[in-house]
Amino acid sequence: MSLQAISVLSVTVILLGSLEGKGVMQRDVQCCMQYSQGKVRTKDVLEFEMQTEGPDCSIRAIILYTKKAVKCADPRDRKVKRLLRKLIQRQRAKAHRTMWLQPHGNLPVMSEIQ
């Protein structure tokens, strides 16, 4: 390969890499196209989000990010509704616990008290 061909190839790779990082080459849409099989335990779910039907996604789903994988669940399923209630309850409890860790108004933080 000539030096000119190598230069053109390396510039092309660099340009494609920079375009891909800005989302021009690939879309950052993660979509469930079908529902996952199997059970998901509440304690394994790190976070979740709702997927609505639209031009990018063909089904409504709950996207569950677990410790090992990403699962797609049917929001109409009775067990999924129960799981979702538990997850929302866990989120509220966590938010309530962390609320008390924040300093309120002009009260000193524990590290400031001598």
TrEMBL record:
SUPFAM superfamilies in the record: Interleukin 8-like chemokines
Keywords (A to Z) from UniProt: Cytokine, Signal
Keyword hit for Signal: yes
Pfam family, one: IL8
A Gene Ontology biological process term: immune response
Signal sequence range: 1-21
SMART domains referenced in this protein's UniProt entry, alphabetically: SCY (SM00199)
Chemokine interleukin-8-like domain: residues covered: 28-87
InterPro entries for the chain: Chemokine_b/g/d, Chemokine_IL8-like_dom, Interleukin_8-like_sf
Gene Ontology molecular function, alphabetical: chemokine activity
GO cellular component annotations of the record: extracellular space
PANTHER family with a match to the protein in the record: CHEMOKINE (C-C MOTIF) LIGAND 44, SMALL INDUCIBLE CYTOKINE A
Name of the featured protein: Chemokine interleukin-8-like domain-containing protein
Organism annotation: Electrophorus electricus
Protein's gene: ccl44
